[in-house]
């Protein structure tokens, strides 16, 4: 049975101020700009990952890994320690790829998705780029949220919004 990707999804109330403008759909005239869009997306993810690393070195942000557990009851801190990475360096072993073509990315409230325990995070480029342009801290929180899924955190429970709000409350003080 394939693992179901967990998505970084926000309720309209959380990001309503960020998502008031509709996400632009690429038209035929934009095909030539696709490679520029991909380069821009790589830059956006790189910027968000740098901000996430900065947040993850904070002691209060480290608390996330003690609070959240995988399906077997192991803390994500235990899982992280088993990888011999820090929370910040673990971001470097996650591969970030364009997931715009995936069905969950058609939902404007979905910004990224990661299979539980997987090392690939699919980025919904238009939504993620919009969030990053409006609030880089939330973009970083999305990557931290996805890191938690990569380390084994499931979803529902906890709900996606609850995970991201906890990331923001601990890491953005």
The gist of it:
The protein is of the alpha+beta class and 173 residues long.
Sheet with the most strands? 4 strands, mixed
User: What's the quaternary structure here?
Assistant: single chain
User: What is the strand arrangement across the widest sheet?
Assistant: 1-3-4-2
Number of strands: 4
Report the sheet-strand fraction: 5-15%
Number of helical segments? 8
* Overall form: globular
Kindly, what is the distance between the CA atoms of the first and last residues, rounded to a whole number of angstroms? 40 Å
Poorly predicted runs of 5 or more residues: 10-33
The total domain count is: 1
Radius of gyration: 15 Å
Structural class: alpha+beta
Order of helices and strands: EHHHHHEEEHHH
Average pLDDT taken over every residue:
84
Binned, the helix content reads 40-55%
Please provide a written account of the structure.
With 173 residues, the protein is α+β, with helices and mostly antiparallel strands. It has one domain. It is built from 8 helices and 4 strands, in the order βαααααβββααα. Strands 1-3-4-2 form a 4-stranded mixed β-sheet. α3 crosses α4, α3 packs antiparallel against α8 and α6 crosses α7. It is globular and about 40 Å long. About 14% of the residues have low confidence.
